[in-house]
Specification:
Blueprint (H helix, E strand, L loop, with lengths): L1 H26 L1 H8 L86 H18 L7 E7 L4 E9 L5 E6 L10 E3 L2 E5 L2 E6 L8 E7 L5 E7 L2 E9 L1
Antiparallel strand pairs: 1-2, 1-9, 2-3, 3-4, 5-6, 6-7, 7-8, 8-9
Length: 245
């Protein structure tokens, strides 16, 4: 009896074991997960490495055109351009020939009004010279009768002294002298020490050189505009005639 009972129970157990296991699997997902812990993971195939695409060239960047440098103000910058001076054409101006300048054998002094080292004057220059002489003559007419350049000559006609007198027609006279017998000498000219006119007589004095005695002059007028008289120099007396240059 006991043997048959045990055999029946064993059959029942064997028949219900798969269903129980299926029921446990279906009703217990956590157990399934726990059963998989420690199990080796299936091998996953390694995907091939991607082939890098060719690099595109960098985009072209348009560079701005540099502005021209601003010139600094002169004098720190370049010198400004200056227009060329006006040059008259050859049809309106012709230079004088080179052979018009006179050749001088000796220098020309300031008081030698009738000599000039310049070339001959053209028509325009001659007109200007005439106007200047007219103005000078008009101004000269307002001066006294002794104003101007004079020459003292001996009775033999030799030029002894030249005088430049200033007569402002107010009774006062001034003047300077020059000795033409000593051309180029530094002490061959100077100022008159004294000059005066009393009545019709003219007297003057000056010193011909440093340390020398005074030269005195006494003159009286002639009817032709000249003056005649006596010159005393170094104790010697000399008859002279003074006439305008």
């Amino acid at each position: 009896m006991n043997l048959v009972l045990r055999a029946s129970i064993l059959l029942l157990v064997l028949a219900g074991a798969p269903a129980t296991a299926f029921a446990q699997d279906a009703s217990d997902p956590i157990g399934n997960i726990l059963d998989q812990v420690g199990q080796p993971a299936p091998a996953t195939p390694t995907p091939p490495l991607p082939v890098p695409a060719p690099r595109a060239p960098p985009p072209a960047v348009a560079r701005p055109t540099p502005a021209p440098p601003v010139a600094a103000p002169y004098p720190y910058g370049p010198r400004p351009q200056i227009a060329a001076p006006y040059a008259p054409s050859s049809s309106t101006y012709a230079p004088p020939p080179p052979n018009l300048s006179p050749s001088l054998a000796e220098p020309v002094f300031v008081d030698e009004y009738d000599r000039t080292p310049d070339r001959p004057m053209n028509s325009a220059e001659q007109g200007y010279e005439n106007r200047m002489r007219s103005s000078f003559a008009a101004a000269q007419g307002m001066q006294g009768p002794l104003d101007g350049a004079w020459t003292l000559r001996s009775d033999a006609g030799q030029a002894v002294y030249t005088l430049l007198l200033v007569d402002k027609n107010n009774g006062r006279l001034e003047g300077a002298w020059r000795d033409p017998r000593r051309p180029g000498s530094r002490d061959s000219s100077g100022f008159l020490a004294a000059i005066q006119k009393i009545g019709t007589q003219l007297t003057a004095s000056f010193y011909p050189s440093p340390g020398a005695g005074a030269v005195t002059l006494t003159l009286t007028p002639l009817g032709n505009g000249e003056w005649t008289g006596e010159l005393t120099e170094g104790g010697a007396r000399l008859g002279v005639v003074m006439s305008r240059n």
